[in-house]
Design a protein that fits this description.
- This protein has 2 domains: 5-37; 41-189, Sandwich (Immunoglobulin-like), CATH 2.60.40.
- The chain has helices spanning 5-37, 87-99, 171-176, 180-183, and strands at 40-41, 50-57, 61-66, 75-79, 83-84, 101-102, 105-108, 123-129, 134-142, 149-153, 163-168.
- The strands form 2 sheets. It has a 9-stranded antiparallel sheet.
- It is α+β, with helices and mostly antiparallel strands.
- The chain has 4 helices and 11 strands, in the order αβββββαββββββαα.
- The radius of gyration is 24 Å and the shape is elongated.
- The longest helix has 33 residues, at 5-37.
- A hairpin with a 6-residue loop joins strand 9 (134-142) and strand 10.
Length: 207
């Protein structure tokens, strides 16, 4: 059976369009899903596993401890002052530590840490668990378009001599760069024992 020139051109165009749809939509979607699945949890512990936190930034150094009385507030400031902590602020950071994921990781030689702001981190978070295990998260500088922060979780040198650098949410920066006053329980709640209203938005950090 013979085809006209116009029919052959239309047939070739249809085949080309079909190939485009396959590679860019179907196969491309599969590849994007594979990339999505490569996002890894930063830490494997739960919020209930955490006994204490210490946070060091360019503004403050502080330590927090779970309230042994199992009452409100859930967290207590232990340094530089000893008083009830702002549960909403602590919970915001805790949620990032427990649920946060790394978009991807880079393997770099330790000599390049300064390029990622990890030689002098903007924040160091030390986490102590109830089972006596400990973890550490170093927050470096943002990437070129401030869509992620460079970070190290439980920094170690791999057998090949390199270190892993993670790309994590910039929400971590907002969570830790606060004045000490923000970590304290608000004065209006200092003598209350009721639980703060769920869903109440977390106040932004002071500039």
């Amino acid at each position: 059976m013979k085809f006209s020139r116009t029919t052959l051109i239309l047939l070739l165009l249809a085949l080309g369009l079909g190939g485009f749809v396959y590679f860019h939509e179907i196969r491309g979607a599969t590849q994007r899903e594979e990339v999505k699945e490569k996002k890894q949890q930063i830490f494997a512990f739960t919020a209930d596993d955490v006994q204490s936190l210490s946070i060091t930034t360019q503004k403050v150094s502080l330590s927090l401890e779970r309230n042994a009385q199992e009452s409100q507030p859930k967290w207590l400031l232990k340094f530089p002052v000893s008083e009830p902590a702002n549960d909403a602020i602590v919970s915001y950071l805790m949620d990032l530590l427990v649920k946060g994921k790394s978009d991807r990781s880079l393997s770099i030689p330790p000599s390049q840490k300064a390029d990622f702001g990890l030689d002098q981190p903007q924040a160091t978070i030390n986490i102590s668990l109830k089972n006596q295990q400990s973890h550490q998260l170093l927050l470096g500088k943002p990437n070129f378009n401030r869509s992620f922060l460079y970070a190290q979780a439980d920094p170690t040198v791999k057998p090949d001599g390199n270190i892993d650098v993670l790309l994590v949410s910039t929400d971590f920066e907002n969570a830790v760069n606060r004045d000490i006053s923000e970590w304290k329980q608000p004065a209006a709640n200092s003598d209350k024992t009721s639980t703060p209203s769920p869903g109440e938005p977390t106040p932004p950090p002071s500039k």
